[in-house]
Amino acid sequence: MSQKNETTVLALALLLTVGIVGGGFWWFTNRSGVKISNNIIPNQQTGSNSSLKDRISFGEKTLTSGEISPAKKEGVQAIAAKSYDQAIANFTAALKLNRNDPEALIFLNNARIGSKSYTIVASVPIGTDPNAALEILRGIAQAQNQVNSSGGVKGVPLKVGIANDDDNPEIAKQIASSLVSNPEVLGVVGPNTSDSTLAAGTIYTSGQLVAVSPTSTSVKISNFSRYVFRTVPSDFMAARSLANYMAKTLQKKNAAVFFNSQSNYSQSLKSEFVSSVSLEGGQVSSEFDLSKVDFSAAKSLEQATKQGAEVLMLAANTETLDKALQVIQINQKKLILLAGDDVYTAKTLEIGREQAVGMVLAVPWHIDSDPKSDFPQKSRQLWGGDVSWRSALSYDATVALIEALKRNPTRLGVQEALASSDFSAIGASGTIRFLASGDRNAPVQLVKIVPGSRSRTGYDFEPVR
Questions:
Q1: Comparing C-alpha atoms, which of 307, 320, 428 is closest to residue 366?
Q2: Which CATH number fits domain 44-232+374-432: 3.40.50.2300, 3.90.930.12, 3.40.50.1240, 1.10.443.10?
């Protein structure tokens, strides 16, 4: 494609993005498990310069920004003043105004707790990726609400703290040190990215505090530590599924891969895909680094085509999603598209539109993938709509910690329970079991982009049966 045409396509994509933002977003409308927006903007006050005490809360301060109702503000003040009955009334009122606020539900449940409780903390990127953070917190809040409303962990309620790590490995390490030094904390859900999990994991290991990440997929996390687990399948599983689909279903042999060399996740998915395609008898003839300042979608596609690529694999991460969407637009459906789970967003539907139809993605969970699960129905009742894969797998991480606490409510007891060969719990995405590597013993789900009305974008993700 010529430079002029590339510029035209990108300009149209930009106009489309501006139109979507200007027209507002819909919350929780995509039944494929991908939400449109949480109507939260990054909190500049929780940036990397803020002190550690401002980053961790059990209800005495709010960490989210955007619009906060007077009732929620009063609830936070009431907890800080130890006026728990008042806090309960305030947070109950706040949730009537905004039922999809997981922070308010967590703080409400914390306010209801008497003297004794078991404590876990969520390490999430509220300051830099608030949408992902809220998705993770919804899963944790649902699990906490469920266990506490049914009598607690063998009669003891679960308290949940929230820590804002900004998806920054150094800040995640500082938070890990703080949590390790707090003897009341018996487990952690998070961090979100593989880079932060690997960085903070060294601290959790030295402090013998279990961290269960619901979203970190890098293969480097396998066998990384006896104290680091995850409820999301590794990139090895995603890459194998995509390579198998490419070889067996598509019957294609030659692929080009787009990735971010600065992301552990993206590097991991790319490397595993290259190996998996080779095992299937194919080849990856081209690799393109989306993080390079001189990256050109048009030039990359031209080169990939010259080298015989039949398939484009988008191993983009969140930071490089926009460049991956440029590739989708400029490709104009000429080459077949595959992608990893960071492309599994409403933004892909909004911007990719017709050019993304037919793209197959390897994802950890889809809301329609297990008709027998009651999790989708319960989450809809609680939040007023559908939740994402991050919510489902953070629910699973919390359920796993709850089950481990039932067995032995100590740090060592939690680790031994999760590592036990007879450990199992029922989560949103089926039975939760861990391999000796700390990995979730579960497959990935392939989904395809199709025309549809559930997401209100005109396009949906649906499971590949």
A1: 428
A2: 3.40.50.2300
Helices marked H in 59-168 — which ranges? Answer: 70-80, 84-97, 102-111, 130-149
Please enumerate in sequence order all residues whose Cβ is within 8 A of that of 399, keeping only pairs 6 or more positions apart, or say none. 143, 425, 426, 427, 432
Residue intervals of the chain classified under CATH 3.40.50.2300 are 3-30+235-363+445-463, 44-232+374-432
Structure tokens at 110: 């914390």
Domain 3-30+235-363+445-463 of CATH type 3.40.50.2300:
yes
Residues 116, 117, 123, 124, CA torsion sign? negative
Tell me the per-residue pLDDT of 337-388, one tens digit each, with 9 for 90 and over: 999 999 998 899 999 999 999 999 999 999 887 878 899 999 999 999 889 9
**Intra-chain end-to-end CA distance of the chain, in Å:** 35
Which tens digit of pLDDT belongs to each residue from 405-460? 999 999 999 999 999 999 999 999 889 999 999 999 888 999 999 999 888 899 99
